[in-house]
Amino acid sequence: MKTEIQQLIQQAIKSAFGIDFDVEKIKVDYPPEGMGDFSTNVALLLAKEIGKSPMEVAEELRDKIALKDVGLEKVEVALPGFLNLYLAEKAVQEVIAEINEKGSQFGNLEKKNEKIMIEYSQPNTHKEFHIGHLRNVFIGSTLVNVLKKAGSDVIAANYIGDTGTHIAKCLWGLVKFHPGEDLSKIENKTEFLGKVYSEAVQKIESDEKYKDEFKQIQKRLEDGDEEIVKLWKETRQWSLDEFSAIYKELGVSFDEIFYESEEEIAGKKMLPNLLEKGVAKKSQGAVIADLEEYDLGVLVLQRGDGSVLYGLKDIPLAIEKFEKYKIDGSVIVADVRQSLYFRQIFKILEQMGFEKKMVHIGYEFVALKGGESMSSRKGNVVPAQYLIAAVANEVKRKFPETDISSEIGLGAVKFFMLKYSSGTKIDFDINESVKIEGTTGPYVQYAHARIASILQKASLLRLSLSGGSLRLSLSNVSNKRERALIFELLKFPDLIEEISRNFEVHHLSKYATDLADKFHSFYNDCKVIDETNPELTAARLELVKAVQIVLAEVLRLMGISAPDKM
Fold first, then answer.
1. Are residues 407 and 499 part of one domain?
2. Which residues neighbour 51 within 8 Å (Cβ) at sequence distance 6 or greater?
3. Residue 472, SS3?
4. Are residues 408 and 362 in the same domain?
5. Is residue 406 a contact partner of residue 560, using CB atoms and an 8 Å limit?
6. What Cα–Cα distance (Å) separates residue 493 from each residue in 85, 104, 190, 205?
7. What angle do CA 48, 50, 56 make, to 5 degrees?
8. Of 63, 87, 111, which residue is a domain's last?
9. Which CATH number covers residue 524?
10. Could you say which of 80, 128, 391, 552 has the lowest number of CB atoms within 10 Å?
């Protein structure tokens, strides 16, 4: 609806002033109650250009806006030059029929001629999958779902770190401190690897002689030493098996999986070309990309000992994505601390003549409330499985009567992490996440379950959802709740459009909470099932059903279940 109104105002500007005004500059908002359904300040932007006061511009635009083209009833001018637009009652009510007709397809945007690859998760083998990884997965998988709904062709990709210094340290720790140990008998293998890695790091930092030993293991691995490669493959598989199990539990899947070990080979082959083109140069035995002139510092691509760093792997991967998969854009979800790094990579690719649409979405730290910041090196990470189990146990404790504690718990974890913007640090509060009120997953799930109960009751009473007149009078206090609820539903397609542009998936949880709030307010003030008034009952049942459809779809986009009972 916002897009249609933007276009309508653009046409009005052309008609009134003969100006081809950029539609992207026309900001359409939802104003406070009593100030219209939509509002725009475009007259204030145009005033100086046209040489008239904002109020004069607004009044001329008001007279040029074709109201009926998008179901508007009237446009009012408000100081200091706002245009407040009101939807016709019929247009508002038609939303209910549209939702019930389209079902989960409501909010789907027109198919775009665009293929986007979303790369997310990117865990490192030989380390535990922790709660920071969960945030990455939730942002990435939600973005995949939203962009698909927005009409894009989406490829979900994962880039697994299965080589590098951290793995060499872990393998050295195994060889040095656990020789002859029967690894097959270790129960929690990935937890064991995490502890070995932490142990190795601390030993190397405490004694210089250990650094040389670890470097020897790293060189043996890079040289293809049979014994070390065998140990690497075995322990690598432990991590890959755990990743698969976690992804299955989280309900996410990938169309493509890349491995750092494979991209390292491609990077080494590409290195001579980078040097020849002058994109990279040798410096004190190492190979670097000097980006100082762009205020991006220096990126080391290869150390003096010949070991390859991340950049020399990400460059060929970026090219492979576009050339092999014919994508139009690449979006990478990764820790915000890598922001400079990705700007460096994008600049190097640009210098190579490879200018493509590439975006990095950075996200901040996650910690348990009251706990210290996580670090694999310190060995104090919070495993993902621990958090998921802890939240499910809290659900059991608070709601002992439920038989879907795991389902509610997982939804609570996802919702809590997704309700924050990616640039906000999260102190995960287990108790807060499972509350049945506020901005929480259980609160939204409860609204869906409550609706399911209403519809089940209607079915038992043999009350029909079809045939309702939908003539919901908007004249009295209670029916203001109806209109507010319907208008909230109408916002959903605009939300999908906005997230597909700005990638800010946290707006979904805000919308889900607002919709649940308005449903509960409506339900408290408006009697849904009134056997003495079958026409109004049928209309309100259709409204309730529409709310259920949209709530379920919002939860689905976030990867959260929509239970029929709690």
1. yes
2. none
3. coil
4. no
5. no
6. 18, 12, 42, 54
7. 90
8. 87
9. 1.10.730.10
10. 80
Say if 39 falls within a structural domain. yes
pLDDT of the residue at 380: 59
Residue 554: strand, helix, or coil: helix
Per-residue burial over 123-159, b if 16 or more Cβ lie within 10 Å, else e, is bbbbbbbbbbbbbbbbbbbbbbbbbbbbbbbbbbbbb
Question: Could you tell me if 173 and 321 lie in one domain?
Answer: yes
**pLDDT tens by residue, 503-553:** 999 999 999 999 999 999 999 988 899 888 888 888 889 999 999 999 999
- C-beta separation of 159 from 342 below 8 A: no
Q: Is residue 66 within 8 Å of residue 8, measured between CB atoms?
A: yes
Q: What is the pLDDT of residue 464?
A: 63
Q: What is the largest CA-CA distance in the chain?
A: 88
Domain coverage including residue 69 = 2-87
* Residues 6+ positions from 434 with CB-CB distance below 8 Å: 391, 394, 395, 398, 408, 409, 412, 440, 442
Q: Is residue 510 part of a domain?
A: yes
CA-CA distance, 265 to 313, in Å (whole number)?
8
Angle between helical axes of 534-557 and 477-490 (0-180°, round to 10): 40
DSSP letter for each residue of 9-62: HHHHHHHHH-----GGG--EE-PPTTS-SEEE-HHHHHHHHHTS-HHHHHHHHH
CA 326, 332, 335 angle in degrees (round to 5)?
165
Give the Å distances, CA to CA, from 246 to 111, 158, 239, 254, 505. Answer: 32, 14, 11, 13, 22
Q: Are residues 355 and 391 in the same domain?
A: no
Alpha carbon 359 to chain centroid, angstroms: 14
Structural domain contains residue 148:
yes
Q: Is residue 58 part of a domain?
A: yes
CATH number of the domain enclosing 16: 3.30.1360.70
- Distance, in Å, from the CA atom of 146 to the CA atom of 142, rounded to the nearest integer, reads 6
Residue stretches of the chain with pLDDT short of 50: 374-379, 467-478
Residue 112 contacts by C-beta under 8 Å, 6 or more apart in sequence?
150, 151, 152, 153
Please state the domain count of the chain: 3
Task: With 0.90 as the threshold, say if the pTM is over it.
Answer: yes
344 and 439 in a single domain? The answer is: no
Say yes or no: 455 and 545 in one domain: yes
DSSP designation for 465: S
Contact 338, 360 (CB under 8 A): yes
State the amino acid at position 117 in one-letter form. M
In which element (H, E) is residue 302 found? strand 298-302
In contact, 334 and 140? CB cutoff 8 Å: no
Among 188, 183, 208, 221, smallest CA distance to 308 is for 221
- Identity of the amino acid at 183: L
Closest CA to 408 of 419, 420, 424, 396: 396
Q: Do 244 and 215 belong together in one domain?
A: yes
Tell me: do 425 and 540 sit in the same domain. yes
